């Protein structure tokens, strides 16, 4: 997960919200809400830079609208724009009715999560405030973001293209920014070790 600025309500959505709220009143026993939000998925996706709010990667399937607070537990928020997040369909299915026990993408700050190389697993860092640590850890477990096979393969898809030279680091950052961060840290560590080795070699010659 990476920081995401709250996406402004698009022009024309107020009319959809009013229609949706009217539908809720007319259908109090409905098992699912009527989908009136999908026409605004492109605006939501653009606000998230087309990156899944949980996986922080470009979703080639196009993604979907996640009701952060679920229909089952918060019917009145079914058409509330501030309750929408752009996410992968797979992760939306995993989240289901976990609601705010899963960390809100809008709350995440820089450096709270990182990818480990070469495993491509995700972990929570010590930058996560104590108040959010439990939710961050639960999010990795619930959505299988840490070491879930599907998510790791998804990361591998972009990482392999970087390794093959089909993406440079800037390109990788567009598709999978946390993977790009991991590569950059690895490059910096490699450079540091090379510099240290050169320094030791120089000192040995001068000794």
Descriptive notes:
A two-stranded antiparallel sheet has the order 1-2. The chain has a two-stranded antiparallel ribbon with strand order 3-4. The chain has helices at residues 13-26, 41-47, 89-95, 130-142, 149-163, 169-175, 177-206; strands at 64-67, 84-87, 113-116, 121-124. The relative contact order is 0.12. Helix 5 (149-163) packs antiparallel against helix 6 (169-175) and helix 6 (169-175) packs antiparallel against helix 7 (177-206). The protein has seven helices and four strands. The longest helix has 30 residues, at 177-206. The radius of gyration is 21 Å and the shape is elongated. The protein is 45% helix and 8% strand. It has one domain (13-206). The mean pLDDT is 94. It starts with 12 loop residues before the first helix and ends with a helix. By secondary structure, the protein is mostly helical.
Sum this structure up briefly.
The protein is mainly alpha-helical and about 210 residues long. The chain has seven helices and four strands.
Number of helices: 7
Largest sheet: 2 strands, antiparallel
Give the neighbour order of strands across the main sheet: 1-2
Number of domains: 1
By secondary-structure content and strand pairing, the structural class works out as mainly alpha
**Mean of residue pLDDT?**
94
- Topology order in helix (H) and strand (E) letters: HHEEHEEHHHH
Radius of gyration, rounded? 21 Å
**Low-confidence spans: pLDDT under 50, at least 5 residues?**
none
Q: What percent of the residues sit in helical stretches (DSSP H or I)?
A: 40-55%
